[in-house]
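For reproducibility, we list the full input for the heme C complex.
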Amino acid sequence: MVQIMTNLGLRRTGTTLRDEARGRRIVRRVGLQLALLAVVTLAFSATSRAKASHIGASRHSVAAKIRYCEDCHGLSAQGFRGYYAIPRLAGQQTQYLENQLRAFGERNRPNPIMSNVAHVLRPAMIKAIVAHFQRLHPRPAGPGPKRLVAAGRSIFENGVPQDNVAACAACHGPDATGHGEIPRLAGQLYPYVVKELINWPKERGQNPANPDTSLIMKPVAHSLTKRQIEAVAAFVSNLR
Ligand code: HEC
Ligand code: HEC
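The corresponding predicted structure, in tokenized form, follows.
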């Protein structure tokens, strides 16, 4: 987190974050730091909650649950590129996965399917399955168009300075592997990344009484054009 704040300080100096009226109040320069602090607090309270739970999950039930997740998320959780893209969980950061399962459960990320899935998972089961998924490393299952990769790399590494878009690499890491609550993007399905960036204000952080880490990405997603989104999604989805 300290690393993110440092990066942000460097990249964001003097920029005005475009956002809706409420978001603008929260996320502006100083507000952003506060949002980050709130995020740190959230993360800490989540960790202590999880530590408080000593109820184990049996190896058999963990294996069965993993198979259940893979029915939708694909073999080795590599993602499934059907009519509706289902994201890759393989190689994903455990803290990020836990945060999203909580967000589905608390309807900060209202998705009828995943809200039901997340609702019944106990803390010990969550710990066991996210640790399993992070260790997997299958080939990317849904890479985007190669012709967009070069333009996408530039956005990922340098951001879009004229539109106040920070470099994705500053937070997601130079190899897009993420860290802690910042997700891995490398190898994520192209149509899923495009959909998330376009729909951010409609799909993430939907419970205003309960602000979460999705606030950090909101101004970034808001400032990107559709073409820029497609380019950067093509770049990350082709990374191994
Ligand atoms: C019936 C199908 C289905 C099953 C079973 C399922 N998922 Fe999902 N999952 C989805 C869909 C669809 C999405 C994408 C939601 C969206 O578009 O926001 C998703 C998204 C997610 C995400 C968000 C990923 C990200 O990159 O933000 C996580 C985490 C997740 N699922 C974990 C799990 C786990 C763990 C299990 C097993 C306990 C599981 N899912 C079982 C369909 C399913
Ligand atoms: C200030 C730090 C920061 C910057 C800069 C940033 N991100 Fe993020 N990003 C995050 C965080 C934190 C999350 C997790 C949000 C959550 O928990 O809902 C995230 C989530 C995402 C997701 C959702 C992944 C998933 O599996 O659903 C995508 C896609 C994404 N970022 C793409 C980008 C792109 C592309 C850029 C550059 C144009 C970028 N990010 C720049 C911090 C950042």
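Residues 29-52 form the longest helix (24 residues). The radius of gyration is 17 Å. Both points were considered when choosing residues for closer inspection.
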